[in-house]
Structures are given as structure tokens and as C-alpha cells.
Amino acid sequence: MMLFKLSLRNISKSIKDYTIYFFTLILGVAIFYVFNAIDSQTAMMNITSSTQEILELLTSLLSGVSVFVSFILASLIIYASRFLMKRRNKEFAIYLTLGMSKRKISLILFFETLVIGIISLTIGLLAGFLLSQLMSIIVANMFEADLTKFTFIFSKNACIKTLIYFGIMYLVVIIFNIINISRCKLIDLIYSKNKSERIKLKNPWLCIIIFIISACTLGYAYYRVAPGTDKLKSEFEMLFLAALGAISTFFIFWSLSGLILKIVRRHKNTYYKKLNSFVIRQISSKINTTVLSMTVICLMLFITICVLSTSLSMKSSLNKNLSMYAPLDIEIGKNYNTDQIKYDYTDIQMKNSKLSFEEALNELGFDYKNNLTNITNFSLYKDENITLKSSLGSYYEIAKNQKGFLSYNKTIKLMKNSDYNNIANSFNLEKVDLKDNEYIVVGNYENMLSIKNEALKRNTKIEINNKDYYPKYEKAIHGFYEMTSNESEDGFIVLPDNALKDEQKVTSLMIADYKGDKNQIESMINNIIKKENFADYILTINTKQDIKNASVGLGAIVTFLGLYLGIIFLISCAAILALKELSESSDNSEKFNMLRKIGVDEKDLNKALFRQIGVFFIFPLALAIIHSIFGLMFCNNIIKTAGVSFNLQSIIITAIFIVLIYGGYFLVTYLCSKNIIKENK
After folding, report:
1. Category of 326 on φ-ψ map: left (φ > 0), alpha (ψ -120 to 50) or beta
2. Which of 382, 397, 398, 587 has the least CB density, counted as fewest CB within 10 Å?
3. Are 161 and 66 in contact (CB under 8 A)?
């Protein structure tokens, strides 16, 4: 009982030391609970069965990611406990001197960890419960769910999972503390404050040379990734550039200590102004001993910015594409001139392939004329000689060197002029009138169209059925034929009606809107697709609702996983930096006390401390932001293939997260450090 009271007194006395520890634990518990409570929060929402399946997949993925997150948080908690142990070396030395056994000291630490765990779990779960209600609104908005039945709910599953995971983490911390206490020696504890890390002064000219080389290397890596994947030939090259960037980042931080000192000392008026010389030397020596940790924090911040910005861009971009690329309610496709051997069709499928849309749908029990309106029919054709390679003509060799990963032997879909003008009416596209020997290229994927436009500028000829055709325009026009939530990579070619023969037809398609009750017709369509004999009619049916569900589901999964990992990474970076700065402030408290004795006032000391901590928070973040500018360019070129692009809103939200979490840790670190350096006043 006496040891328990002593533990409570220690916690009360050292509450300032525990501030960052508490802050990190509470934040970790709250975030962990929020993302594991999504399934309980959505239980009260009125959602469709397909949306429910997406949410089940999302919660399953979040549960899996939570295991990884728990390892990150466990490592962070152990790291934080090391700082607290270091701060209390003198206290432990007094205990041992007074005759207290190591077993009793371990018991004191056990009670302290238990009390801290209970307090942080209680406050964290309460904060998580409140934040999860906000998360419910975000989920409902993302899936356009009905919130009329929504009530505040506490997730028992998320609570139990949080208690188990964090209980294990605290148990690991207790074991770690016991091992540390069992190994410590009285003499080491007494003189721990007098031990100083050996710092080797670096040659400033060597630092300048290494900094210039590292900056040039980083510039080369930026140049290689900035245009996207155009200049990258393989995955190995991407990994090589990533490794090059990481190594360059390390050497930039390595060279900064000597570089800063060299540059500032040349400006004597600045260097000798007030406490600048003290601050500069402190920063220089600290960078010297924290190169690896600064590098890791910088790279983690870089990953965090890219992950958060990319994931937050998904939803808004996909929703925008949905309204653009799925303007009608339904699209039905049917193969023509099928090859039984090539497609492994059954006899029944071969027989049904000759049926018209009306016949096939009637046999499946759907009267499309009474249920659909604004019906447009069109067909796609194929010519084995019209491939991406042949359509590029003389530009093929240049394109192959720039984009060697493309399938140049893949045939390109062809369409009649009249059919294209029919879908142009429905999709609000530009109509065209072709002469007897003209063709146009249509598409919406800019990276693919860029090489096709070069071929069009060269007036590239294509030959179909022994006749030559030339481009009407020197540039492809925007358009598409397949309803989807993203851009179509391939594009297609439009030719005069008499250029294509019926035997070249490969697909017939119908696009339309629903007539009457959309929910009822959607239900009829879903029932048809679920029929056992649906596959016998070799039909493909894409509805706007299905495309929307898939689009929203993908956006939700990426967004929530990105937010979860991004926030945890951000907390980890900020907490590691904060704990390092608190540890340094503890070690440097005597230096600040010495400055007081020679007449430096408290205001100047606080300014010096603020600048010192500020530089260490800004350095890794500033370089991470520079990395992210080029990293986001690279990511943007990749995610364009899914019809997604970055928007200003996602970058602003990412910046808000960084300001709130990273800035919050900086502020708490400064306030705690200010209290530490006053202890020996």
C-alpha cells in the first residue's frame, strides 16, 4: 500500500514530465478506437447491401492494419518510457542509497504504469467516443447513407480491442522497465547527469562539399521522378531512386551541423547577437548526434504527406469522374462474331450470341422497351492490322523509348461515324462529320493521347480493308464509349460508316436511362444478374449505381486507410522529436542555469529555447515538404490511370492535420522544456 501511495505521489510530482507521454497515449487510444468503431457506427445507418459489403471489407482491412499500427504505437510507448526512466535516474539512485531493493522499485514502476494506463485509456476512450460520432457523419456523407435512425453509440468491440491491444503494450513496458531496473548500477545512476555524449567536430569544408553533392543527387532524383513514369524503365530504377533519395537525405542532415556553424560564423553581427552563438552551437552539436533519427523522421513525414494527400484526393476526384463518365443509368454490352475456341464458350452461349438485345433480355424476363428510355445503340469493330503500333506510324520508335511499358501490339477499337454521333448526343461530346478518307482519334486519358497526338501531327496513315485513311485533326478529341468511374486508357478510332464491315463487329452496346421507379428497375436488373443462366447470354451490364458503389467503396477504403496510417505516422514523428527535445532539455538544464548566473534574463533564455526546438521541428518537416512536392508529382502521374488527380482541398486538409498534430506537439514540447530548464533555477 505504501508503494502504491508513493507511485501516485511520483505521478503527481512528475506530471510535467508525463505531459508528452499522456498526450501521445491519449491520442493513440482515441485514434485506435475511432477507426475500429466504424462498423458499429454504420450499424444504425440505412445503407444498401452492396454498400454494407464494402463497409465490411473496410472494417476487415482496418482491423488488419490495426495490428501494424499497434506495433508502431508499442515502439513509441517503449521509446517514451526510456525518456522517463532517464529523467528519474537520480530518484532511483536515492531509493537504492536508502536501502530500497530493485524489486520494490520495479513494483513502484508497475503501479505507475498501471495508473497511467488506466487514466490514458479512460480519457482516450472518452475522446475516441466523441470523435467517432464525427467519423459517423463523415462515413454517412461518403456513402450517402440515411442518418435518420442514427444515435450516439459506444462500440463494445472497439473498446475491447483497444483495451486488449493497449493492455499488451503496457505489459511490454512494465517488463521493459523491470529489465532496465535489474541491470542498472548505483554508480551509473548517480553520475548519469555528468555523462556527456562525445561529439566530434566536423570539417566545415567537408560538410559543404557533402551538402552540395547530396543536394545535386537529390536534384537528379527529383528530375527523374518529376515527369512521372515516362523516364522510369523498371521497378528496380524506382527503388534505386528511392534509396538514392534516402541516402542523400541522411548526408544532408549529416553535413548541416558543420555547414550551419560555418555560414553563421561568417556573419559576426548575427552570430554574436544575444544568445545566437549559444543556440547555433547547440543546434550544430544536436544535429551531429541525431542524424539518423532526423533522417527517419523526415522520410516518415514525407510518406505521411503523400499518403494523406493521395487518399484524401480519391473521393472528390472519383465522384467528379462519376458524373462525367457515367451520365446515364445503364449500359448493356453483347459480344458478336464470337470464336467458340478462343473464348471457351459453351454451345448454349454460342447459340445465344446470335440473339438480339430484345430477344436476350426478354428471355431473361426484362422488357427493356417499357423500363428504359433515351436508348442509344452503337457497335465496336476490330481490325487485326490496327494496333497501337501501326496507328503511331513513324512515331512508334520514339514512343517505345519514352513509354516502353505500353502494349503496342494491342488492337484498337473502331467505331462508325454515325454510331459515334449517336453516343455524342447522350454523353455531351463533340460531333464530327468525316470525309470518305478521314479518321479521328477519341479518348480521355491524357498520357496515352499525348503520344497519339504526336502521330496525328505527322499525318499518320492507317489502312483498313485495302483503303487508306488520314487524320481529320492533328489532335485527338475528348470522348469515351464505356460507362465507368475513371478514364479509359485505350481510346478508339472513328471512321466513315462504309469503312467497316459487319464481320468486323465485335461488340454491340446499348446505353439508356431508367423509365419510372429507378429503385424498382435497379432491383429487377440485379435479380437478372443473379440468375443462374445469366452467363449463358454473354451479356455485360454496368449500371450507374454499381459504378457509383465501386467508386465510393474504393475511395472510402483508400481514404480511411490513408487517414489511419497517416495520422499514426504523424503522431510517431512528432512524439519522437518531442521526446528527444525533452531529453536534450533535461541534459542542458545546467547550461541554462549557468547562463542565468552570468546575467542572462529569463525572456532571452525562453527565446533561445524556442528557436532551438523550433529549428529541430522545422528542419525535417521542411525537407519532407520539398520531397513531397516531387513525390506528389510522381504519385499524380500514377493515380491518373485510375482517373484520380490531386486537388487543392486534399493538400489543405493535410496541412491542417500537420499544423494541429505536429504543431501541437511542438507547443507542448516547448512548454514542458521551459519547465524543465527552470527546475534548477
Report:
1. beta
2. 397
3. yes
